[in-house]
Design a protein that fits this description.
four-stranded mixed β-sheet, alpha+beta, two-stranded antiparallel ribbon, 40% helix, Alpha-Beta Plaits, 170 residues
């Protein structure tokens, strides 16, 4: 198929609409279901839908990969996660602490974490943001518009040492 034929075919499937903006200028937008299908799947033979839970799992795993992230989730989510660990056969949720909004071509992600003490939080948040964006965009082809990171707590490494019953002072 020549380039002219492909252009004519794409133009034949494109619907153009004209709208008025607040300034009175006319803008033209073009929508083509055939072009959208090609963008989503690489061909015009079908459409790919990605569930929110898939994007949330990818984001959760990507956030946990970063050094300096002690845990993912707020206090309530972490308590529920600890209860799950005790129940036989139950698994820890990969989506704990992750909230996503997924559209046809874009996704937005909110990540809640507990940081290790001593880590530069602004650098940690930037690393989480980069890793989550890269993972989602590479695995799904969705454009990530934003990744919001909320730090709920800071973990001190000696918290676990003190909870074993030993006294610091004798």
């Amino acid at each position: 198929m020549s380039d002219n034929t492909a252009t004519t075919e794409a133009a034949a499937t494109t619907e153009e609409s004209s709208t008025q903006t607040a300034t009175g200028k006319s803008t033209r937008t073009a929508k083509s279901t055939r072009e959208i299908a090609r963008r989503d799947t690489g061909s015009d033979r079908g459409r790919t839908s990605i569930a929110d839970i898939v994007v949330a799992k990818i984001a959760g795993i990507a956030a946990r990969e970063i050094d300096g992230v002690y845990d993912v989730g707020g206090t309530t989510e972490r308590v529920v996660g600890k209860v799950r660990e005790v129940i036989p056969g139950a698994t820890v949720s990969a989506t704990q602490g992750i909230d996503v909004e997924v559209g046809e071509r874009q996704a937005a992600v909110d990540v809640s974490i507990v940081a290790d003490y001593g880590v530069a939080i602004h650098q940690l948040a930037a690393a989480i943001r980069r890793n989550v964006i890269t993972a989602i965009e590479q695995m799904t082809g969705l454009e990530v518009t934003e990744v919001n990171v909320t730090v709920h707590d800071v973990n001190f490494g000696d918290d676990a040492d003190q909870s074993d019953g030993t006294r610091r002072v004798e």
